[in-house]
Design brief:
The chain folds into two domains: 121 residues; 91 residues, no CATH class. The protein has five helices and twelve strands. The protein has a seven-stranded parallel β-sheet with strand order 1-4-5-6-7-8-10. A three-stranded mixed β-sheet has the order 9-11-12. The radius of gyration is 18 Å and the shape is globular. It starts with a strand and ends in a 10-residue tail after the last helix. Bound molecules: iron/sulfur cluster (SF4). Iron/sulfur cluster (SF4) binds next to loops.
């Protein structure tokens, strides 16, 4: 797995952004995360070594734009070049997460066709309102692989109207950071049950920093948030038909 951040910085768009880690980390370094800029590693997918081979070897999964939103308005002048690199490196799997799926069709490259097969897009829905706003759009747009990310999970969510074979996976998790909002175990269990009923893969990624279970709020240090979620043993993969 390789990270590629072609641009950095973002603007808050919904309640899931309140404690955005990009803002938090930039603030620790005295930077303003609302200033969006193209990074030095913009060309990383097509960069080569001295021997002529690509720096990113074939077969890698490339976590794309994790210090911004790939569909951010400020990045419109740069995105066509980024799409072109993703197309050129058909031997890599690119994955990005967006809260701006409403912009998707207006920023597609001309040669997108039915979808670049090596681009996996995740749409974030942190509460019911965002699920109802974003998922009808997400369901309708041409993308080879689509996953739903409920992270930071801020309320119970009824995904039933949307779950179906078009969804590759649902990933859920709490919020990290010192001001994290509480994530409840019963919300997680409910989403897992919804996925099981619909035959959609489910992954409990992380607890977040404040986790409510059995009438008690647990403060969970960052280093245990992923391992504690795994220990819950909730991940679910449907049996292939
Ligand atoms: S869209 Fe993502 S990167 Fe941008 S402010 Fe919101 S949480 Fe941060």
């Amino acid at each position: 797995m390789v990270g590629w951040n072609p641009w950095h910085g973002c603007h808050k768009i919904s309640s899931g952004c309140l404690h955005c880690y990009v803002y938090r980390i930039d603030a620790q370094h005295g930077r303003d995360a609302s200033i969006v800029f193209r990074t030095q590693e913009f060309n990383l997918p097509v960069k080569k070594k001295r021997d002529g081979s690509y720096k990113i070897p074939p077969g890698e999964q490339v976590w794309t734009c994790f210090s911004s939103d790939f569909l951010l308005e400020d990045a419109d002048p740069w995105r066509d070049e980024a799409w072109a690199m993703m197309k050129k490196r058909a031997d890599l799997q690119f994955l990005f997460i967006t809260k701006r799926i409403h912009r998707f069709t207006e920023v597609l490259p001309d040669d997108w066709g039915t979808a670049y097969p090596n681009v996996h897009i995740c749409c974030t829905v942190e509460n019911q309102d965002m699920a109802e706003t974003r998922l009808p759009i997400f369901r309708s747009v041409p993308i080879a692989r689509k996953s739903i990310v409920c992270e930071p999970l801020l309320s119970s969510i009824d995904l039933r109207p949307y779950l179906g074979p078009w969804v590759h996976q649902v990933l859920v998790g709490g919020e990290s950071g010192p001001d994290a909002r509480v994530c409840r175990y019963d919300w997680i269990l409910d989403l897992k049950e919804q996925c099981r009923e619909a035959g959609v893969a489910f992954c409990f990624r992380q607890t977040g920093a404040k986790f409510y279970k059995n009438g008690k709020i647990y403060q969970i240090p960052r280093k245990y948030q992923f391992s504690q979620a795994k220990k819950a043993g909730l991940d679910f993969f449907p049996t292939p038909k």
